[in-house]
Protein: Transcriptional regulator
Amino acid sequence: MKPIEVFKALSNESRLEILQWLKEPEQYFTPHEGIDMREIGVCVSQVTEKLNMTQSTASQYLSILHRAGLIKTERLGKFTYYKRDEEVIREIGEYLKQEI
Structure:
């Protein structure tokens, strides 16, 4: 984990919202093609619709979260799915307790 990258990724309200939505995706999204959103994740088109932004902006936000290690990706066919990396998020919490 690179704390600076994590905090940069978290410095945007929409990216924070994405992380919140991915915590309990069934509350915020309709399953895409029968995909288990907890196990596999949420498709970029679902995030795009929820953000009410362009797909390129949503993809950029997801990419930033992914590079920071906050989310994982899984490719199934032509779709990429995103879900939270709960282990990294726990590490961030521990880091904050110890370092700040």
